[in-house]
Amino acid sequence: MNSLTFSNKSILILCSTFIFICCGFLFFKINYLFILPAVIGFILIFILKPDTIWTSIAFFTPLSINPNDVELGKLSVAFPTEPLLIILVVLFFYISLNKIGVDKKVLYHPISILIYIYFSWLLITTFTSTHKVVSAKFLLAKIWFIFPCYFLGMQYFKQEGKLVQFLKLFTISISIVAAYNFFHLSTLGFEDKPSQWTMRPFFKDHTILGAILGLSIPICLGVYRLEKTKSLKYFFLICFIFQLVCLIVTFSRAAWASIIASLLTLIILKIGIRFKYILSILLIVLIYLISNINTIMMNLENNKVASSDDLVENVESISNISTDASNLERINRWASAIEMWKEKPIFGFGPGTYMFEYSPYQLSINQTIISTNFGDVGNAHSEYLGPLAETGLIGLILILTLFGMSFYFGFDAYFNSTKPDHKILIATAICSLSTYYLHGFLNNFLDTDKAAVIFWTLTSMIVFFNIETKKSTK
Questions:
Q1: What is the CA radius of gyration of the chain?
Q2: Cα–Cα distance measured from residue 447 to residue 441, given in angstroms and rounded to the nearest whole number
Q3: Bond before 50 cis per omega within 30 degrees
C-alpha cells in the first residue's frame, strides 16, 4: 500500500518522454493516439502511487460526465470515475490475495457480512431476472461502487490524514459544481424551469444535484470544524455558503426536506439520545401514521399549492398530492412498484429492471400529464420501493437492515469515541447519511457514481470508527 518515491531525475525523464511522444503524434498527424500517453500515465500512477487514484475519486466524482445522461452520446459510463473505480476493484483483489491482506475485523464486521448477503441475493435475482443482461450490468456496477469505496476505503483510512483529505477533495469538487450551477442559473433569472438543467453536463438534473448537496453540506461543515489553518477554514466556509445557496436554487424539495433530517440527527447526537430510543420513537411514529392514514391523506388532498419559482410556495407544494404533477407521478411510480412486487414477491423482476417493466403496471387512475405508456422516463423514485419491485421482499429487508445497522454502529462509535476529531468525523458521516436515508423515500440514485461513491465511503467511515473505538476501549 505504500507509494514509491520519485527522484527529480526520474520525473524529468518521464516528462521528457511524454513530450517527445506527443510531438511525434503531431508530426505524423496521428491524432487519435493522443490517448496513449494518458493511458500510460494512468498505468504508471496505478503501479507507483495507487493511493492517488483512490483519493482522486473524491475530486472526480462530482465533476464526472456521463454522455448518455446529458445527451452527449449513447455510452452510459461516467468519465473518469467509473473506469478508475474498475481499476481500484483490481487493486482491492490484488491486496486481498497477496501478503498485505485486508483487516479481518473489516471482513467480519456485521455490515460487511450484510453486504456479502446483499451481493449473493443480487446474484440470485440476476439469474431469475426478466432482463438478465441488464441485471448483470447492475451487479457489476455495484461491485465497482462498493468494493473500492467501502472495503478499499478502510485500507486507506489507516493512513494519517487520508480520510480527511478525501472529504476535503469531495467538498471542493462539489463546491465547483455548485458555483457553476449558481452562476449559470443567474444568467437565466433564477427561474424554476431552467434550474432543472443548468447543472449539466456534470449532473443529469436538479434532483440528483440536490441529493448530493444534501449529503455534502454536513461533510463541508465537518471539514470546516476539523480545519486548523485559518485561511482554509474561511475557504471551506465559503464552500458551505455556495453549497447551501445552490441547494436552495435547485428547487429540489426532496433535498430541502433531507437537510431537516441532518439537523435532527445532529441535535439527537448532541443531546445524547441512544439509538434504541430513536428506534422506539420511529416505530411509534410509523404506527401512528398507519393508523391515521385516511385522515392524513384527506388533509394532503386539500393542499392545492403547486411548485413554482416562489420558495414559500415550493415548500408548501411538498405535500400537494392532488394537483402537483411531480408528486402525483411519484405516487404513480410507487404504485407501479407495489403492483410489480405483488406479481413477483420473492425474487422480483431483477436488479435494474424497473424502468423496463413498470409501464404495464401503471393504473390509469394514477397516471399524470408527465406519465408515459412506454415506461422509459426513469426509475421508481424510491430507494426502498425500487428494490422491492426488482429484488423482492428480501431485497427491501436487506436495504432497510443496512441503513438501520449503519445508524446503530454510527451511534455506538460516536458515544464510545474519546477523541474529539473522531467524534466530528463520525457525526459528519451519520448526519450526511441521514439526509440520504430520508431522500431515499422520494428518489433513488445509488445506481449512479454521484451518490454511490460518497454513500459507501461514509458507510465505510462508520465501520472503520466502530472498529477503532472498540480497539481503544479494549
A1: 23
A2: 15
A3: no
Strand, coil or helix: 68: coil
**Cα dist from 439 to 142, 207, 255, 315, whole Å:** 20, 10, 7, 15
Query: How far is residue 462's CA from residue 414's CA, in Å, rounded to a whole number?
Result: 9
CA distance 96 to 106: 12
Q: Which of 51, 429, 56, 420 is nearest to 228 (CA)?
A: 420
Find cell 392532488 and name the residue: 322
**Helix, coil or strand: residue 65:** strand
Long-range contact set of residues 192-195: C-beta below 8 Å, sequence gap at least 24 = 192/251, 192/307, 192/308, 192/309, 192/314, 195/249, 195/250, 195/251
- Which amino acid is it at 238? I
3-state SS assignment for residue 79? strand
Q: Are 280 and 161 in contact (CB under 8 A)?
A: no
Q: What is the pLDDT of residues 66-91, one digit of tens each?
A: 887 777 767 778 888 888 898 888 87
Could you tell me the CA-to-CA distances from 409 to 261, 275, 415, 459, 460 in Å, in that order? 18, 9, 10, 10, 11
Half-sphere exposure at residue 397, Cβ-oriented, CA atoms within 13 angstroms: 8
Amino acid occupying residue 345: P
Q: Please check whether residue 275 is in contact with residue 207, taking contact to mean a CB–CB distance below 8 angstroms.
A: no
Task: Specify the DSSP element, H or E, that contains 109.
Answer: none
The β-bridge partners of 65 are 79
- All three cell numbers of 450: 454521484
pTM attached to this predicted model: 0.87
**For residue range 302-361, what is the model confidence (pLDDT) as tens digits?**
656 556 555 555 555 555 555 567 778 888 899 999 999 999 999 999 999 999 999 889
